[in-house]
Amino acid sequence: MIGDKNMINWSSDFATGVNIIDEQHKELFRIGNELSLMVVKTRNQDSSEQIKEKITELMAYTRYHFSTEEKLFIIYNYKFSEEHKLQHQDFIEYMNSFEFSNNVNEQLLNIKRLVNYIAKWIFTHIHDSDMKFVTTLSDKNIKELSN
Ligand SMILES: [Fe+2]
Ligand SMILES: [Fe+2]
User: What is the pTM of this model?
Assistant: First the structure.
């Protein structure tokens, strides 16, 4: 379950060295962390509308971030773009399939599960797949993208 250690906090472990990607990841972590804090604090249905809005915000920003990365795959002719894009798609589908329940307790449990899934997915995806992409860029490309 969500405890302090599982908060969605950005740290330099997640730095890819490519400015545009790192800035967007920080924003994703910021929204994810807000959501995670809301879920920890919530006790009742009062905050469920706010939580819904935060999930919608997170989804919108996630889509925007994925499209940025996917544009870079095309520009830099990334060899493993298809498998990376599939991971993005799976995540979007998982998020889209999330349903809000009318039962308060059930809903809170579902949202906790969702936030745990998001946290794990973001950590693993950045460490494995985003890093893999960045390592295929030459120093010249990275400088270009970091200006
Ligand atoms: Fe990615
Ligand atoms: Fe990413």
Answer: 0.89
